[in-house]
Design goal:
This protein is mostly beta strands. The protein contains one helix and nine strands; from the N terminus they run ββββββββαβ. The strands form three sheets. Strands 4-3-6-7 form a four-stranded antiparallel β-sheet, with helices on one face.
């Protein structure tokens, strides 16, 4: 549950990608307050998904260091800038660490 203005709201989960065939379910209940954080992808690649309503361009692909939007897989060991909610889901799944 997420508390919004003193009321509880159930999590809104969307699949933002997969790691080794396992869906990464991200809570987008408070997407308006999302900000980027860095994670290091674990031993398995993170294959990005693009669910309706979720930002199609991840922070990783903005600015001069962008590897290109065509890259839809983050390789093992890659350092990536993702929205905090997506990073939290990856870390909770044991698929990444904060860096």
């Amino acid at each position: 549950m997420t508390s919004i203005n003193g009321t509880n709201e159930a999590a809104r989960l969307v699949c933002t990608g997969t790691v080794n065939g396992v869906q990464i379910m991200t809570d987008v209940t408070r997407i308006e307050s999302a900000f980027p954080v860095f994670v290091t992808i674990g031993a398995n690649a993170y294959s990005l998904a693009f669910p309706p309503g979720y930002p199609a361009i991840r922070p990783q692909f903005l600015g001069g260091s962008a590897v290109g939007i065509a890259t839809q897989i983050l390789a093992p060991g890659a350092r990536a800038s993702l929205l905090k909610m997506e990073a939290d889901a990856l870390v909770a799944a044991g698929a990444a660490t904060y860096s």
